[in-house]
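lol ok so funny story. i was supposed to be doing the assay writeup but got distracted and ended up predicting the structure for this chain instead. priorities right. anyway since i did it might as well share w the group, maybe its usefull for someone
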Amino acid sequence: MFVNYKTSGIFLKKIDKGEANQLFTIYTKDFGRLEVMGKGIRKMASKLRSQTRILSFSDIEFIQGKAGKTLTDSRIKEKFEKISLDLDKTETAEKIVGLVALTVRGQERDEKSWQLLLETLYFLKKTELRESHAVYQYFFWNFMAGLGYRPQLDVCCFCLRKLANEIYFEPAEGGISCKSCRPKGERDCPIDAGILRILRVFEKSDLEAAARIKFSLNQKNKLETISTSFLSTIL
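and the output, tada:
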């Protein structure tokens, strides 16, 4: 006997299976990450074909069988079309859903992470931005914190003392260190007070405040390096 479930979700990615099927990764309000098979969905006559767009916010129904979950219905609530009209916003949104697909494991409800994802996508949709790098970085650090990987930004992660002028980011240790505690032979990842201040804003402010931060090109590149290194340590 099959059990039918209903929930809301964001379509994160899809993989073609066989001649007509697709396997969807969906982040949902009630179940967290789901892998759901859309049977026959690539056929032109499929009623679900137009209702399973990546990045769409949808009401979905699925059944749980012995072989896995099968999508039975999907109705788009929000396509985020205004995001797709802006290349920079599109790239940011794709990075965000890609991050969720990459880092969330298993099926577990997480209301805080769900609300953060939904809030961020709606913010991208409605807000005029010169560029949206700050939005991604805000999402990244807050999403990581929600998964249990909040970085230590107040004191050295080794000696627990307040930091002096020379500061290093230690991805493997999940925080920042002073010069004297930096592990020997580690690849240098120095940061300045400006980068540290930005990271603290991401941690303590809301999305609207974070989006107003103006980065220099050097700061943008440094933040990208730090977030990429941090992510690689937890995968």
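The domain at 3-78 is CATH 2.40.50.140 (OB fold (Dihydrolipoamide Acetyltransferase, E2P)). The beta strands are 3-17, 21-28, 32-38, 57-65, 68-78, 167-170, 175-178, 190-191.
back to the writeup now i swear
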